Amino acid sequence: MGPPSRYQQCAVTDQGLGFPADFLPKAFDRFARAEASRTSPGSGLGLAFVAAVAASHGGTARAENTRQGSAVSVDIPC
């Protein structure tokens, strides 16, 4: 059986400042937090959970900056 030909995508976007470029490669690491958010509440586990759920269903998660802010997407095979 080859790779799935169809995926369901769920994306969450915002219109904020986006992710710092140096944070993107580690955005899905457990306890990873951008330097600017270290004084805000949170543990840095949210995106790690997103990636774990996507992987448990054979999918992938991705974070990127857009012209309007940032986007986090999950692709799950159907």
Strand content: 25-35%
Query: Which class do the helix and strand fractions yield?
Result: alpha+beta
CATH architecture grouping:
2-Layer Sandwich
CATH class, please? Alpha Beta
Structurally, how many domains make up the residues?
1
> How many distinct helices?
1
Question: What is the topology, as strand order, of the major beta sheet?
Answer: 1-3-2
The helix/strand series, from N terminus to C terminus, equals EHEE
Largest sheet: 3 strands, antiparallel
Give the overall shape: globular
- The residue ranges in which pLDDT falls below 50 over 5 or more consecutive positions are none
Strand elements, count: 3
Would you mind describing this structure in some detail?
By secondary structure, this protein is an alpha+beta fold. The protein has one domain: Heat Shock Protein 90, CATH 3.30.565. The chain has one helix spanning 46-56; strands at residues 7-14, 60-65, 70-77. A three-stranded antiparallel beta sheet has the order 1-3-2. A hairpin with a 4-residue loop joins strand 2 (60-65) and strand 3 (70-77). The longest helix has 11 residues, at 46-56. The radius of gyration is 14 Å and the shape is globular. The model has no long low-confidence stretch (mean pLDDT 92).
